[in-house]
Amino acid sequence: MKTALTIAGSDSSGGAGIQADLKTFSAHGVFGMSVIASVTAQNTQGVTAVEDMSPKIIDAQLDAIFTDIKVDAVKIGMVSNSDAIKVIADKLKSYRPRHVVLDPVMVSKSGYDLLQPDAKQTLISDLIPLAGVVTPNLREAAVLTDMRIEGIEGMERAAKAIYHMGSASVLVKGGHLKEEPVDILYDGSKLHHYKGERIHTKNTHGTGCTLSSAIASNLAKGLTLDEAIMEAKRYIHGAIKNSFSLGGGVGPTNHFYQWFGERV
Ligand SMILES: Nc1ncnc2c1ncn2[C@@H]1O[C@H](COP(=O)(O)OP(=O)(O)OP(=O)(O)O)[C@@H](O)[C@H]1O
Ligand SMILES: Cc1ncc(COP(=O)(O)O)c(N)n1
């Protein structure tokens, strides 16, 4: 069985973070493992508290996994501070997993900061150069590049700028565009557009986590990056289409509708 590891934050309500990642890995038939970098207290309406794990326990979790188990793909999500980022970068440099998907999580949908302001520079200098693909949304791409991004042309410029920070490729996600949600990949030679059809729902908690974990699962299974993204777009479309209301706010994506019916 292929394996995938998520290094991210825990979402107590199960819609985003580690929990969304593990559900996505399972739905792809990939064995999921986790390194918890932060614990968040959150629900469908917002985040009420965050506690970061110490660099020491992050380091120990990474060693426990990599000294024993072959990791086919790594997905990195919320890592809120510079010290944690540095530990993760050091371990990736020594264990050198084949595929690294970096989702540079910065702010939750509900507006809570998940990346400390002084950690942005460490993310750029230490983690982006180790990524096979970085998957910022519009706002994250704007923060990383200090650019204003409004439409497709801005997304293309940002993808190229982030590529020049050292990652092998960049997928700028267009979920927050006013028009259809197209995602744009730059791989150093060409720009690729992955088109989607907008689904009108408020229940989109964890869409970014789900997409990056689906890409990591597909890479673990041996798909090319282009195939992995196309397949992940298909997956996120189904997961959003079958998303459901839970709690009083933004409900989660649905990973299991294929098995348990449209509305589980
Ligand atoms: N309403 C929608 N209909 C169809 N596809 C969508 C919709 N919203 C987002 N997507 C797709 O979902 C994926 C995640 O994109 P998005 O821009 O929402 O990421 P994100 O903002 O990082 O997510 P999150 O807020 O969960 O961190 C992308 O492939 C995007 O095109
Ligand atoms: C632990 C964690 N990781 C990531 C997100 C982003 O997801 P969203 O933008 O849907 O709130 C989150 N809310 N919590």
From TrEMBL:
Ranges of residues in domain Pyridoxamine kinase/Phosphomethylpyrimidine kinase: 11-254
UniProt record, GO biological process: thiamine biosynthetic process
GO annotation, cellular component aspect: cytosol
CDD domains given in the database record: HMPP_kinase
E.C. number: 2.7.1.49, 2.7.4.7
SUPFAM superfamilies referenced in this protein's UniProt entry, alphabetically: Ribokinase-like
Signal peptide stretch: none
Keyword ATP-binding carried by entry: yes
PANTHER family: HYDROXYMETHYLPYRIMIDINE_PHOSPHOMETHYLPYRIMIDINE KINASE THI20-RELATED, PHOSPHOMETHYLPYRIMIDINE KINASE
Family: Belongs to the ThiD family.
Annotated protein name in UniProt: Hydroxymethylpyrimidine/phosphomethylpyrimidine kinase
